[in-house]
Amino acid sequence: ETGVTQSPTHLIKTRGQQVTLRCSSQSGHNTVSWYQQALGQGPQFIFQYYREEENGRGNFPPRFSGLQFPNYSSELNVNALELDDSALYLCASSFPGYEQYFGPGTRLTVT
Amino acid sequence: RKEVEQDPGPFNVPEGATVAFNCTYSNSASQSFFWYRQDCRKEPKLLMSVYSSGNEDGRFTAQLNRASQYISLLIRDSKLSDSATYLCVVNPNSGYALNFGKGTSLLVTP
After folding, report:
1. Which residues of B touch A56 (CB under 8 A)?
2. Contact status of A109 with chain B (Cβ, < 8 Å)
3. In the prediction, which pLDDT does A1 show?
4. End-to-end CA distance of chain A
5. Residue B35 has pLDDT above 80, yes or no
6. How far is CA B48 from the centre of its chain?
7. B97 and A48: CB-CB below 8 Å?
């Protein structure tokens, strides 16, 4: 096991609602990256946080936002949910430039 | 054009077979390269890094050709437990985002 945990495991939301997903990084890791994996696709980079600051962002709209806390845990927030947001959301923790360790993911279904 | 392209398969092979996966990437300035393994409905896990000189880990051999922007993974003596999706991953800037291919599905049958 990587030591990266995510909650909740599964979530069902309705279109237009908002959702918050949580990630606890492996002990000592100060960098958290979030990825979205749609069915049949590879993970797509959403954004990365390093020491509580956004350190890079992929091609996702502003309704995807995040936070990193002093203990390096992180949240992903998605507003105005759309059906296409249904996916597995993965977080990965690391030291900058080193291997990223993935958590088990949160499976989000938007109906 | 996608940044990392892979043949999605599926590859169905018998136990003991040798199977090869290929991947191409578009960013010639990419810094590091990996193969990840993902079991059904699980998180991706690092299988091995890929170096220009080629590297081997047991039954697995990875190769990188920077001139052709091409990465390969060879699995020898396939086991049932090798059944999974294999993701080709490119890191354009060390410490930054990982760019994943769609993955290649492998099913090893008895």
Report:
1. 96-97
2. no
3. 66
4. 32
5. yes
6. 9
7. yes
Interface touch A45/B95, C-beta < 8 Å? no
Contact list in B for residue A23 (CB cut-off 8 A) is none
pLDDT tens, position by position, A52-104: 999 889 999 999 999 999 999 999 999 999 999 999 999 999 887 778 899 99
First and final CA of chain B: distance in angstroms? 37
Tokens of residue A1, six digits:
């096991």
In 3D space, the residue among A7, A90, A72, A76 whose CA is nearest the CA of residue B100 turns out to be A90
Strands A10-13 and B32-38 come out as: unpaired
Token pair recorded at residue A107? 């499976």
Backbone phi, then psi, for B102, in 5-degree steps?
Answer: -70, -20
Half-sphere exposure of B96 (CA within 13 A, CB side): 13
C-alpha A51/C-alpha A69 separation (Å) is 8
Selecting from A42, A94, A100 the residue whose C-beta is nearest the C-beta of B101 gives A42
